Queue: 2 jobs
Job 1
Amino acid sequence: GAVVSQHPSWVICKSGTSVKIECRSLDFQATTMFWYRQFPKQSLMLMATSNEGSKATYEQGVEKDKFLINHASLTLSTLTVTSAHPEDSSFYICSARGLVSGEQYFGPGTRLTVT
Amino acid sequence: GDSVTQMEGPVTLSEEAFLTINCTYTATGYPSLFWYVQYPGEGLQLLLKATKADDKGSNKGFEATYRKETTSFHLEKGSVQVSDSAVYFCALSGVTGGGNKLTFGTGTQLKVEL
């Protein structure tokens, strides 16, 4: 139980285009989902916290207009990287906080490469 | 702000060797401490946790003790197996963000060889 999926697992896009990444909790409900970014050999950096039905809370230094987060249901959150540039290339990881357990369950991550 | 420092990898061990991965932290108050493991191609999984000083978290033969005096949470296992090969992340959940926010170390890759 407590499985979180991400789609796609990897994506290559051209500079200036937008990319949407989905995060789903498959067998539990999550009112809160988190989006992280991971650079090679560096720790996971929290980008934003999304709560179902309300606006996401972004960490300091994260551009909310560039990284659009939507948490439309208790099992789905999406991250859209708008007007992507090569510096946005990274590994994006989501997690979902279980309603009952309160524990964070992590997705396998999405590798984004912007050319 | 909160921060976590863990030893750099990769760490390469022979099967049945003793494992220690060091982790120290900086935080205000009394954070909860975690070890997560990431197997190849999978998401991070909670390995063990401790919520107060002197607590010992344990799971699958791994142990870590919350040491307030040394601000440490070192991960240990007495006899590693090839199947333990993975990346291990130390993390804390501090008082900021209502306890929801996890601050991670950089991760330590463990390779166990026959």
Job 2
Amino acid sequence: GNSVTQMEGPVTLSEEAFLTINCTYTATGYPSLFWYVQYPGEGLQLLLKATKADDKGSNKGFEATYRKETTSFHLEKGSVQVSDSAVYFCALSEEWASGTYKYIFGTGTRLKVLA
Amino acid sequence: EAQVTQNPRYLITVTGKKLTVTCSQNMNHEYMSWYRQDPGLGLRQIYYSMNVEVTDKGDVPEGYKVSRKEKRNFPLILESPSPNQTSLYFCASSLQPGRYEQYFGPGTRLTVT
């Protein structure tokens, strides 16, 4: 079946370091891809998305490019801040049966940024 | 304020005692969904509703029921809770499924003893 695989955490970085969180997926069709972020004690919120191959999603200094050839959607940020400490989820949405959609999330990657 | 609300936020109950977790959205969204979040497993979809007429199972529907009698509400029902349903539950909604952002509620932490 379809799946999303993320690198395991936790990832611990110093402030201003470069961040990469890997995400690969398996899907039978042409999914939309998302990164969500979860701050402690809160629900998930959308960070960025891409809906077709070669699209780049970006927000708050984070970027991810939809790579169909490698089935990947890696999250990057050039300079992390302490306030970026959170859990990051990669997810896909794909049409399942005629007209219906399902969402699949990765297991989440915890990021801790040290001052 | 556009939001998804869930109640209760915390619930401790005993095995077999029926419970309902409510979910409501004020954004006129068609698509609504329930997830459970467990350590090491991420979020898994329990049920989803394309609109008030179409509701279907997600990846882990066993032991849960839902209803979508009106567009804004999508309650999650546990007829006979068991300890393996102890988890953090999230309701979410989106304008349409597929390429649109999902908006998540604040979560309900359920403990079944």
